[in-house]
Write a structure and sequence with these properties.
By secondary structure, the protein is an alpha+beta fold. It is built from 3 helices and 12 strands. Involved in formation and maintenance of cell shape.
């Protein structure tokens, strides 16, 4: 038989050491387990002693309530935390979906605006669709000059799109002008208020009633009728005659004023342009 000396160290079992270390590291969980065990014990004791009808049962119920109350509150708090987290996730999801719907709505409005602009362009050109769609290309205005009258501006179409110097430019309201210069991805447009060349026109209701328009020194569009006896009045719509650089029947504007020049035997007119140049957003170039 082996006899252990008094000074010899007691060898501890590894399993017990690990258990003690785990308990020390998880004090809260250990305490919670202990509370649950004690509560269960009191509950069993209260049941077997007649519940709340005896002093022991009442004591057990009271003690059980005191022990389980903090545990119940802890459970409620934990449930509240998870519930709040779930609500935050739902709110974030709703916010994300709302942003997506707003973006989709914006894109739909843009597509609707583009469709309306293109339909207006077709109307201005008496465009019927079909095999000639490649003769019309639309683009956006990217820059305006800052003069009193809008005489020139830049668009996002260029040589690679078939745009060249002299190309005619229109929008949904009517005649805009011609391309002054073009490069890759851009073109500068000279409006009819900047052009020194005359515009040959006729009345919308009478192609035989013709005249010439030019830009006055104060930036207005004015002109005269080729026939002094021509019947023209304020409010009449003028369109291009097809003579010169502009195709026929593009709206130019409406007559504002008619005067008779007795000295030169001419019927002079002042015209309000169909295009509002300070609000240009989209144009089309005839290729």
């Amino acid at each position: 038989m082996k006899i252990r000396s008094a000074g010899a160290k007691v060898r501890r079992r590894p399993g017990r050491v690990r258990d003690m270390n785990w308990i020390r590291e998880h004090k809260f969980i250990s305490f919670l387990v202990l509370v649950i065990i004690l509560a269960a014990g009191f509950l069993i004791f209260a049941v077997f002693t007649g519940g709340g009808s005896t002093g022991a049962g009442a004591l057990g119920g009271t003690v059980f309530g005191k022990i389980t109350e903090p545990v119940a509150r802890l459970g409620q708090n934990i449930s509240g935390v998870f519930s709040a987290g779930s609500l935050r996730e739902k709110n974030e999801e709703l916010s994300r979906r709302n942003r997506e719907l707003q973006e989709e709505n914006r894109k739909l409005r843009l597509r609707e605006d583009d469709t309306q602009d293109l339909e207006a362009l077709k109307k201005a050109l008496r465009y019927k669709g079909g095999s000639d769609t490649e003769q019309l290309i639309s683009g956006d205005v990217t820059a305006m000059n800052d003069s009193r009258w809008i005489r020139t501006f830049t668009i996002n179409l260029g040589k690679e799109d078939g745009v060249k110097t002299g190309s005619v430019v229109v929008n949904g309201d009517g005649l805009v002008g011609t391309v002054k210069s073009a490069g890759r991805g851009w073109a500068k447009v000279s409006t009819i208020l900047d052009s020194s060349r005359g515009i040959s026109f006729c009345l919308e209701d009478s192609r035989k009633t013709m005249g010439i328009l030019h830009v006055s020194t104060d930036g207005e569009l004015e002109g005269y009728m080729l026939d002094e006896s021509a019947k023209v009045r304020a409010g009449d719509t003028l369109v291009t005659s097809g003579m010169g650089v502009y195709p026929e029947r593009i709206t130019v504007g409406k007559v504002k004023k008619v005067t008779n020049d007795e000295e030169e035997k001419l019927k002079r007119i002042t015209v309000e342009t169909a295009v509002q140049f300070d609000g240009l957003r989209k144009v089309a170039v005839l290729l």
